[in-house]
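HUMAN: Now follow token order:
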Amino acid sequence: MTKNNIQKFREASRAYSDASIFMHEAIARKAGLSSTDHKYLGLILQYESITAGEISKLTGLTTGAVTGLIDRLEKKELLKRQFIKEDRRKVMIIPNTENSMKLLGPIFEELQQKTMKLVSTFSKKEIETIERYFREATLLMKETTDHLNTP
């Protein structure tokens, strides 16, 4: 790979990252959420249930910050706390997928359609290459995040 190719790749990657951040901030504003709450709601929605401690470990947020996040999202009825009968100190966070999709679904619908149209222009081999890049780059970013979050 030439120096020019590497530079072009870096520029494209940076532009993609910036556009993603700006888009998600706009989506969050449109949905009446902060960009942070929007992104962490997306994380929580990947689970049937999750504890506040698990959210803290996944995100690197303090337990106090996670409590504030849960409070804000619960107030908007996007999740609920469910106390465990056997141990009232333990609380499960249950995402309200239905309310979240009502809020965010219409915003993402057009984007998903346009994304699928774009993806359909790539060959199977190109899609596999792009997917491999995203998966491996994600692992690198997770490793960096874990390293930075380690005291």
